[in-house]
Design goal:
Helices cover about 60% and strands about 0% of the residues. It contains 5 helices and no strands. The protein is elongated, with a radius of gyration of 19 Å. It starts with 12 loop residues before the first helix and ends in a 6-residue tail after the last helix. This is Reverse transcriptase zinc-binding domain-containing protein.
Amino acid sequence: MRWKWTNDGWYTSKSAYAVQFAGSYCTFNCNTIWEAKVEGKHRFFAWAWWNNSFAGLNKYTRKMVASLLIYVTWNIWKEHNRRVFQNQAALPARVVALIKEEIKLRQDACGGALVF
């Protein structure tokens, strides 16, 4: 028996997963998660977290949630770099304030609704 969804004809769970989405449209390239050089459990967690974050949301809400996730992740990364490279640490409330400030600056510059 030959699995028709792979070039070599062998069944894999990865190919079965890909077949589920044949013909569907996805704006997020999941390959970046699966190709990450981390343990499998971390890849699975990232994939599940990303998919569950947007389950059941309409297009507008998905965009808002994605924007918020990006702003939060970016500012946590910046705080990490401040701590490592500048030997400075902000309180969590200050990091939240910086996130809100950056979102407000973006709204003032480009228009659009605030996330908060």
